[in-house]
Amino acid sequence: MLDIESFFSSLVPVTDWMEIGSPAVYKNIPDGWSVLMTDIVGSTQAVQDGKYKQINMLGVCAIISVQNVLKTERFPFIFGGDGATILLPDELKEKALEALSFTRQVACQKFGFELRVCSISLNQIRKADRNISVARLENINGQNTYLFRGGGLTYAEEVMKTNKSFELASDYPVSGGHEGLECRWNPIPTQRGSILSLIIKPLDENNSIEALLFNLQDILITGKPIQATTIPVTWPPKDLLSESKARNKSFMSFLKSLLYTFILWPLISFGRKVPKSVASDYLKDLEANTDFLKRDDSLRLVLDVSEQEKNKIIKWLDDFKTRGLIQYGYHESREALMTCLVRSPKNHFHFIDGSDGGYIKAAEMLKKSK
Q1: How many domains does the chain have?
Q2: The model's pTM
Q3: 159 is a domain residue
């Protein structure tokens, strides 16, 4: 059985979006691994109550907490809007579950949410005639987005939501922390018309993802929801208090962060106009280090599109659906949400969703389309 470091090294990085539909770039998860999943119970109501950013934040917190406990970022994971999915060898599962137990505790005590945490073995998934294979999409900064196929994650999510025997015990030990979480960017307004959160589930064996990406390739460049030149630098950060709660920090720590951003934001706003400045370079890296395109059996996209582009995308999707190749759901909003994982000025990654429900609303539409 490969450990996480060996398995990570065995994944040949993909650098072109157009390749992520090809089965050749995916590698089977080894035997003796498990899928760990989280989601917010009652997330639909929480969205209606205007708490979607907090839901996003706790999904990212799950990933951060496991990274902090294991002291590595080199394992497959994906952020899903209202939760996260993490894959690990079983010898690391106990430590990771303690980290997720910490995130569950914070979700309850600081935000009043019930965070469901589940663990499902790969053996159980393969007994159900599903599989999980993974690819590693690497950007120009060496940051990784993980991509999954094989139906195993879809099956694991179904099990999580229907079988309580896979849930983490309420008295499970707690360890971990959310250091690295940052929520200091305010919602990012659309620059082109609307923010489109899309979930596209392929139904054909030959994988319609490749054809869809071919159609979308130009929009994937122009429609990135985070652009270094247009991202608004505004103060105060409206979710800074939620970040402080999630990190289990004191009110005094929150005030220090508020003062820090008050000083920093004008420097970023001015520095972005200076070529090759620290601020300009950081914003370029920020644009590159986002997960606006990913795959967890389904293709997930968050795009900033014009009305014409939106209509073109929906027309393509309807055509593919009519031909029995896909099911899909989408949600249209005016803003994108960004939750950040920052380890250093050169090591940072940014998780993207649409506002007002984003991926949750897209998933609801997808279920109704079946």
Answers
A1: 1
A2: 0.95
A3: yes
